[in-house]
Amino acid sequence: MAAWSTRAARLSDLDQLRSLLIDSCDEAIIPAPAFLSDTVEHELVRVAESEGVLVGCIVAELPSPGHARLSLIAVRDGMRRQGVARQLLDEMVKELPGKSSEPPLISAVVGTVELAVARLLLACGFIGTRFMRTGPSADADHIYYQFKSRVEYIDPDARHLVPATAREQLAESLGPPDHAVTALMSLGGEPAFEIARFEQDDPATLQSGEAAAGIAFSGSILAAITFLLGFAFSSTRFPDDVRLLLIGATFSTVLSLIVYASASGELARIRSNSFGKIMKWGNVLSEYGGVFPFLISLPVTYAQVSDNPWTTMVLAVLLSSAMAWYEQSEFSIAHRFRRSRTEIMLMVLTAASPTIGAALVAADAVSWPWTTVLTVTLVARTWLYLFRRGAEADIAERRQWQIRG
Fold it and tell me: Span 290-315, mean pLDDT?
């Protein structure tokens, strides 16, 4: 098996690309030189290379910011069945969201007779959702495949097999919007498509529930912060800078409540295209502006009412450890994005803040430098996730549809 590697295509590869496509594809599907050059310039072509020779490629295009189309996949005869096409496809699917201003729908249109390409797409997280007929011949029948970016469930008792040659039955089976091709199998020695029915969710109901949960959560956090703030003002030993931190947390949590209410308004006016962006603001404000300052202030409050520095520090260390675990868990906002060194440093400062703050208060030391650093850290993280973060990172590789048990 020849060794090979993949990379983004360069303009200097155009001659080799043309040669590869001529040797590997039907002449009818080879793109025009101008189109190929344009896709290479926009970094929408990936190639596989072995000993300086291109042995495979995948070409995509972006008709609009919200839609990406895979135009073709080609591999030389001697390099097939070695995983070249699958790696190129996996890499392109991961890279396409970063090429657009919004996460695009990734699709491909494949003829019903192109079974090898269909099997590849189905194995890489695509499903066939539409039957498309452009002429009377079998070669004119195509299936529209799209990549599933989120997990959906299928009814295990609502699946059936359709021979790949049964054109009318295939078109009828893909007619309902909740039916899709999920696998390519062998039936009596002949290829057959598995058609499954997906369970349909009501987006408005799901979004309404999410907005209501956000409002309830922020309301609870606001009540807790208000209680702690009342204690802070009643204590003569409570540092003024920590009082200011809690006031800021109160303001941020109120803002998150307003944002969540705005998300509910979006649903009421049936303008849910902005729902995700609005919820992102609410989630970030409530976590970094409300929850974290509240949790970090707990050991500081305990240090005010307890004369035992040991129990104070044990509580602070436990809370720091819990926050560090949360930051690394799949539940945190930080886990959804790729982390830079600066971001890791901000995460460490956030997790260490309960211990540092409790130690300063227990020792009757000046605490305003700690409060200043903490405030800058939380503001930086809020700004980072609201304005600087792109597409979410790959949290875990998973199949994008599952059978409901």
Answer: 87
Q: Are residues 158 and 61 in the same domain?
A: yes
Cα 189–chain centre separation: 39
Tell me what pLDDT residue 400 has: 56
DSSP 222-272: HHHHHHHHHHHHH-SSS-HHHHHHHHHHHHHHHHHHHHHHHHHHHHHTT-G
CB 385 within 8 A of CB 284: yes
Mark which of 198, 218, 248 sits at the end of a domain: 198
Q: Quick: pLDDT tens for 188-238.
A: 889 999 999 987 666 667 677 788 888 898 999 999 999 888 888 887 777
Q: In what order do the strands lie in the sheet with 126-133?
A: 5-8, 45-50, 53-64, 67-75, 105-111, 141-147, 126-133, 179-187, 190-198, 152-163, 401-403
Q: Which domain holds residue 139?
A: 5-198
CA 164 distance to own-chain centroid = 34
**Rounded distance, CA 182 to CA 173, Å?**
12
Nearest by Cα to 178 from 143, 106, 130:
130
Task: Identify the band that residue 403 occupies on the pLDDT scale cut at 50, 70 and 90.
Answer: low
Distance CA(288)–CA(249), nearest Å, equals 9
The answer to whether 147 and 185 are in contact (CB under 8 A) is no
- Claim to verify: residue 123 and residue 234 sit in the same structural domain: no
Residue 345, classed as helix, strand or coil, is: helix
Strand, coil or helix: what is 122? helix
pTM value is 0.60
